[in-house]
Design goal:
The chain is of the alpha/beta class. Helices cover about 45% and strands about 35% of the residues. Strands 1-2-3-4-5 form a 5-stranded mixed β-sheet, with helices on both faces. Helix 1 runs parallel beside helix 2.
Length: about 120
């Protein structure tokens, strides 16, 4: 499941991913993010990953095909994850984007929000 939140006029998008990621959920989030990027230009993403249990194979392909090119348009990304392996994988993923990326533990959510909103 994906929850997507943003406030009007804000360049910050907060995406919460929980459980198993479906292709349908991912496509919906990518479409919304694309619209926000087109409207706001410099978009920042705070992604919360909680109790991640995998993704449908079709979602993986969608992420590669649609999500990766969109990631190039993000200026800053904060990833808050309960699993250490996700935080480590995010650190490696920095090589695939021009965005400034930082990882946080769930107990650092307030710090992540402060960082993503900082100028």
């Amino acid at each position: 499941m994906i929850r997507y939140a943003t406030e009007p006029g804000s360049p910050v998008v907060e995406i919460t991913l929980e459980g198993r990621l479906t292709d349908s959920d991912l496509r919906g989030a990518i479409e919304r993010l694309q619209a926000d990027v087109e409207e706001n230009g410099k978009t920042r993403v705070l992604e919360r990953i909680e109790h991640f249990s995998g993704m449908e194979p079709a979602a993986l392909w969608t992420d590669i095909k649609l999500g990766m090119p969109l990631a190039q348009k993000i200026t800053r990304a904060a990833v808050v994850a309960d699993a250490a392996w996700i935080r480590r994988l995010t650190d490696i993923g920095r090589l695939l984007t021009r965005a400034e990326v930082k990882t946080f533990r769930p107990d650092e959510l307030d710090d992540a929000r402060t960082w993503i909103n900082a100028d």
